[in-house]
Write a structure and sequence with these properties.
Elements: H1 2-11, E1 23-26, E2 31-34, E3 39-40, E4 45-48, E5 60-65, H2 70-74, E6 89-90, E7 95-97, E8 103-112, E9 116-123, E10 129-136, H3 146-149, E11 162-168, E12 171-181, E13 190-198, E14 207-208, E15 213-214, E16 223-224, E17 229-230, E18 239-240, E19 246-247, E20 256-257, E21 266-270, E22 278-279, E23 281-285, E24 308-309, E25 317-318, E26 326-327, E27 332-333, E28 341-342, E29 347-355, E30 365-370, E31 383-385, E32 390-392, E33 401-408, E34 416-420, E35 425-429, E36 432-441, E37 446-454, E38 458-466, E39 469-478, E40 484-492, H4 501-507, E41 525-534, E42 540-546, E43 548-549, E44 556-557, E45 563-565, E46 572-574, E47 579-581, E48 595-597, E49 603-605, E50 609-611, E51 615-618, E52 621-624, E53 632-640, E54 646-653, E55 662-665, H5 674-680, E56 683-686, E57 688-694, E58 718-726, E59 728-733, E60 737-738, E61 741-742, E62 755-761, E63 772-780, E64 789-791, E65 805-812, E66 824-832, E67 835-842, E68 854-859, H6 866-910, H7 918-922
Parallel strand pairs: 63-65
Antiparallel strand pairs: 1-2, 3-14, 4-13, 5-8, 6-7, 7-13, 8-12, 9-11, 9-13, 10-12, 15-16, 17-18, 19-20, 21-23, 22-24, 25-26, 27-28, 29-41, 29-42, 30-33, 31-32, 32-41, 33-40, 34-35, 36-39, 36-41, 37-38, 37-40, 43-44, 45-46, 47-48, 49-50, 51-52, 53-54, 54-57, 55-56, 57-58, 59-62, 60-61, 62-63, ...
């Protein structure tokens, strides 16, 4: 038995054995052997880089679940939504998750026999999606240092890829990639291109190289074949194509036939202008050249044209002393046909960026081409000038991003709000405008996007188009002054040699195959005919505007802040009180029309900006809110997935912004160094901002609407997706609506005179085309003992129904108006030592200037107060009245007694008994009346006579 068990143990290798990369474990002699040519091995590793369409690799599972969120439920994305379309799916070259209003989890279990590494390449461009990775052991306990790799960084919209590495421990490891869409609609997909894991158990064989790659002996990975070479599966080297009749892109499994050249295989360009301002047209083949010009019927490269006068520059530009067009120097202008010249007296250049003649790419524009793996396209720049327009280049791989960008340092207007119409309606003022004319010609699936990038707001997808689009003009209003980079990106979504781009198409719900050998790219093209960016600080001037001319100066001077320019340009005048000068350099805004009133409740500061110091008057009431003007954080509703994952929104509010603004920071940052992590960190400063918080394991047991204090959040709590909800304070009023903003019905009660603060962030996004707004209702609550209580709508625990317009209720005693003279009740004390205390008690609906009851001591006075005099007079009158009544009734009683006695005497004299019969003498007839008649007169004197004996 011992011998048998020993033999069996030699035949069954231990699971702790692992070979190095490039080797496999030979079960015959129980040793590691080198892989032969045409194969590769990771040793104790796994490499996944090719995914079968609509089928997850073995060992991977995908789970999709809904989560509770008020604005997603309000938009019809509640529990009844079909989340299956938002799960993780295999899309040929990628694993893709669309995020959406669902939570999707991709899980893979792997057992490591020794410590190893996980490396995956991903694309994460959408900030409306939370993307996190977590590695756990068999007991579902997170591995150490999870904070370093849990939150992958964002990637750019322009096809950028990033690689993430994770340390794994020996034993069972559960790997989970999770996406959670915070928007109601379809999001940009999260893509994973490859996954590599080292440290797993031995492999008993080497894997063959796929077609288009090769390997020598002992290879860890296979190498792609160079251009114009190919290979079959399990190849040890690449075979060259026929250089005359065939060609092949990099990593091709076969050669392609070179077709006859056509007009689509070359392009026209102009030589730089010479000293005589002359140029000529020349033609060059598109690189790399894949056609044949020696076949019958093929197009030949046209000869250079005769030298001719250089084409005019674009407006605001001139050749100057060089051979290229450059923006005119400062304080000069040009229409493009003439040299730059100074503006006439009393005028100033109207700067902008106009491109309508595409002879060369202006200095303020740039072009680039990025392959799906993030590398630069071998064909060079992605855009080619063509005289009347600029178009995307050809011969790039499917899925490549072709970028055209224009940089704007800033705008000359500050924006704001203006009053229009007889009704005094308010509307926002734009700081500038970007307009362009384009055409999209695609035989299959393609996408053309317009992007806006700034240092403070990051990258924003403004608009996108797909399929074929006829020539059209698009206009975009910039509502907030900042430095921007505006970009146009074109992507052809087709099946390339490696099948990569079909994954992107599938992830976007598109798809398609490149069946014509790659020549479909001839017609897949985006064209831009002209671009115009107005009111910029830099660039060139195509015209001049009137301006103020100082008599002691040789040039124009802009009017100081708070002043407007007179129509004749001879001087500047101060704007009326509580108005600001907006767009002072626009001809239509010359004169006092350039001064626009501040929003309700706001005051102009030196004529340059409208703001409030948290001390203002509305109607007959005065409000002092300075005690509330410190940043306050409020806890939103918790969002739970079915598996128990939780998230919530944290709002930070700075009421008036006179002190420290509200800050929302992203703590989810990763990188190889501290400097890299610091560069990736970002924060938002605004009146109101919001961040998404992922709680740790610590006790964060707060309810909806509660404010946060020190120690409420533990160190394992992370924040991400910080956005501004209110960059500007537009109005402070008691009205329930302002512009397109409105207070929800839940926060409107006629019994309260609430104050409303209206905020706006005019940055349009794909989710919020009009930007984001916030309305804060401030209500007087005398019963509020603490500083304040901020609540969110009961029907929308996230503060919003659509993710764009937010409402808050702030109850505080500090929100009560200041007490006026008539709001105090006077109570006087007794006179002590010739001093009398007078107490002034404020009414409940107002707030005194000081928290204590005001008491004043005054000298006692001998004058009887009017109230006391009235009391004494009434008391005396009542006493006299009672005395009169008593006398009246006493006299009535005396009269009755006299009448009675008279009746008794009269009866006794007439019927008396001589014998002294008392009984007979006492019998009297009944009186008819005990009272005197009105005709009876009282007798003053009565004589009584003694009876005769």
């Amino acid at each position: 038995l011992f011998v048998l068990s020993t033999s069996v143990s030699r035949l069954v290798p231990s699971t702790d054995i692992s070979c190095e990369a490039g080797y496999y474990y030979d079960l015959g002699d129980l040793s590691c052997r080198q892989c032969r040519k045409g194969t590769y091995s990771l040793g104790g590793g796994i490499l996944l880089e090719s995914f079968q369409q609509d089928r997850l690799p073995d060992g991977f599972t995908s789970q999709v679940e809904t989560f509770r969120s008020s604005f997603t439920t309000h938009r019809g994305s509640g529990p009844d939504i079909d989340c299956s379309q938002f799960g993780w799916k295999a899309r040929g070259g990628y694993l893709a998750s669309l995020g959406g209003p669902c939570a999707a989890t991709l899980t893979f279990d792997v057992h490591l026999v020794k410590p190893g590494n996980l490396t995956y390449t991903y694309q994460y461009p959408d900030k409306d999606v939370i993307f996190d990775f977590e590695a756990q052991n068999a007991q579902c306990q997170s591995l150490r240092d999870s904070k370093e790799f849990r939150w992958p960084q964002y990637t750019r919209e322009a096809g950028e890829w990033k690689k993430q590495s994770v340390r794994l421990l020996t034993g069972q490891n559960v790997l989970q990639w999770k996406t959670l869409g915070m928007d109601h609609g379809q999001s940009r997909p999260v893509l994973i291109k490859n996954i590599e894991i080292s440290g797993v158990s031995l492999t008993s064989s080497c894997l063959p190289c796929r077609a288009g790659t090769y390997s020598a002996g002992g290879a860890r990975v296979c190498t792609e074949c160079p251009e114009n070479t190919f290979s079959n599966s399990e190849a040890s080297s690449c075979q060259p194509c026929n250089p005359v009749t065939e060609y092949a892109p990099k990593g091709s499994p076969s050669c392609r036939q070179r077709l006859p050249c056509s007009r689509q295989d070359y392009y026209e360009k102009r030589t730089p202008c010479d000293a005589d301002k002359q140029t000529q047209r020349v033609y060059e083949w598109i690189a790399p050249k894949i056609c044949r010009d020696d076949l019958p019927g093929s197009e030949q490269l046209p000869p250079p044209s005769p030298r001719r006068q250089c084409a005019p520059c674009n407006p605001g530009m001139d050749y100057g002393n060089g051979s290229t067009c450059e923006p005119c120097p400062r304080a000069t202008w040009s229409d493009g046909n003439s040299a730059c010249a100074a503006c006439p007296p009393g005028s100033t250049p109207n700067y902008g960026m106009q491109v309508a003649r595409w002879v060369e790419l202006p200095a303020f524009m740039s072009a680039a081409c990025l392959e799906p793996d993030g590398s630069t396209c071998p064909s060079g720049a992605g855009w080619q000038v063509a005289g009347s327009h600029i178009h995307t280049t050809r011969h790039h791989s499917p899925g490549a991003y072709l970028l055209l960008s224009i940089s704007v340092g800033g705008f000359r207007s500050k924006g704001g709000v203006t009053v229009t119409g007889p009704a005094g309606d308010h509307r926002r003022l734009e700081v500038g405008r970007v307009e362009f004319s384009f055409e999209l010609d695609c035989a299959a699936e393609c996408e053309f996007v317009f992007l806006q990038t700034s240092e403070t707001k990051g990258m924003t997808l403004v608009e996108s188009w797909s399929q074929r689009q006829a020539r059209q003009t698009y206009s975009y209003a910039v509502m907030q002054n900042d430095s921007y980079t505006f970009s146009w990106a074109f992507q052809r979504l087709g099946q390339g040699p490696a099948g990569a781009a079909d994954a992107v198409a599938g992830a976007l719900g598109l798809g398609g195959a490149d069946d014509d050998g790659g020549r479909r790219g001839y017609v897949d093209m985006a064209k831009i005919f002209w671009v115009n960016v107005t009111n910029t600080e830099d660039g060139g001037a195509a015209s001049c505007l009137p301006c103020h001319r100082d008599l002691d100066s040789e040039g124009c001077l802009p009017c100081p802040p708070g002043q407007y320019m007179e129509p004749n340009g001879t001087g500047c005048q101060f704007c009326p009180p509580d108005t600001t000068a907006v767009e002072p350099l626009v001809a239509a805004r010359l004169g006092q029309e350039a001064c626009q009133p501040c929003g309700p409740g706001l005051h102009a500061v030196n004529g340059g900006s409208c703001e409030t110091k948290c001390y203002f008057e509305i109607g007959d009431n005065t409000y002092d809110l300075r005690s509330l003007d410190t940043p306050v954080a409020v806890h939103g509703s918790r969002l739970f997935t079915a598996s128990g994952a939780q998230y919530y929104h944290l709002f930070n509010i700075s009421l008036c912004g006179t002190g420290e603004p509200a800050q929302c920071s992203n703590t989810i940052t990763v990188g190889e160094s501290a400097a890299e992590r610091a560069a990736e960190s970002s924060s938002v400063a605004a009146f109101i901002c919001r961040t998404t918080v992922i709680p740790g394991q610590g006790p964060v047991g707060m309810g909806q609407g509660e404010t946060l204090g020190d120690g409420d959040v533990d160190e394992q709590t992370f924040s991400t997706q910080s956005v501004a909800l209110g960059d500007e304070l537009l109005a402070v009023t008691t009205d329930t609506s302002y512009m397109h903003m409105k207070v929800i019905d839940e926060f409107v009660q006629d019994d309260f005179k609430d104050i409303r603060f209206y905020y706006a962030t005019p940055l349009p996004t794909r989710s919020c085309p009009k930007g984001r707004t916030a309305v804060l209702t401030l209500r007087c609550d005398p019963t509020e003992n603490g500083n304040s209580t901020i609540t969110l709508p009961a029907q929308w625990p996230d503060g919003t129904s659509d993710g764009c317009n937010f409402n808050f209720m702030w109850k505080s005693r500090s929100a009560c108006p200041s007490c006026g003279t008539n709001d105090y009740k006077t109570v006087k004390g007794e006179c002590v030592n010739r001093k009398q205390a007078v107490h002034y008690l404020p009414a409940k609906h107002c707030r005194p200037s000081s928290p204590e009851v005001s008491t004043v001591f005054v000298a006692c006075t001998t004058q009887i107060p009017l109230e006391v005099q009235l009391v004494v007079a009434v008391s005396v009158a009542l006493a006299l009245l009672l005395c009169g009544c008593m006398m009246h009734f006493w006299r009535k009683t005396q009269s009755l007694e006299y009448k009675y006695m008279k009746l008794v005497q009269s009866n006794g004299g007439r019927d008396g008994d001589m014998d002294g019969d008392v009984e007979a003498e006492c019998e009297l007839p009944p009186a008819e009346s005990c009272a005197l008649g009105e005709e009876d007169a009282e007798e003053e004197d009565v004589a009584f006579s003694a009876p005769s004996s």
